[in-house]
């Protein structure tokens, strides 16, 4: 789903009929900017993962990857991949259940 598609889906909710798409787009933009700033600017506490949880949906975690040796697939030369951060996502129980229910009902419909 693209950002315009998300904004369009949000705008179609009856309880938001009075809210302009422009305002919805601004709120969506602020939400993702706040998440980005949190993961970029927040200093982790020793022994605790830096994470953002949304109950029922899932948890985003910032993970540190150590530097490692790699290989350039084109030249076969050995390279060093620098240490870096990455984001992982673990879906919440409700989200996983909903996905699997839709998968199982789609399979039943094909039989």
Helix content: 40-55%
Form type: extended
Number of strands: 5
Looking at the overall shape, the CATH architecture of the largest domain is Irregular
> What is the number of helical segments per DSSP (H or I, 4+ residues)?
3
Helical/strand content category: alpha+beta
What does this entry look like structurally?
There is one protein chain. By secondary structure, this protein is α+β, with helices and mostly antiparallel strands. The protein has 2 domains: 41 residues; 67 residues, IHF-like DNA-binding proteins (HU Protein, Chain A). Helix content is 43%, strand content 26%. It contains 3 helices and 5 strands. The strands form 2 sheets. It has a 3-stranded antiparallel β-sheet with strand order 1-2-5. Strands 3-4 form a two-stranded antiparallel sheet. β1 and β2 form a beta hairpin. α1 packs across α2. It is extended and about 55 Å long.
Summarize the structure.
By secondary structure, this protein is an alpha+beta fold. It has helices at residues 3-11, 21-41, 93-110, and strands spanning 50-54, 58-65, 68-71, 78-81, 84-91. It has three helices and five strands; from the N terminus they run ααβββββα.
Properties at a glance:
2 domains, 43% helix, 26% strand, alpha+beta, HU Protein, Chain A, three-stranded antiparallel β-sheet, single chain, 111 residues, two-stranded antiparallel sheet, extended, 3 helices
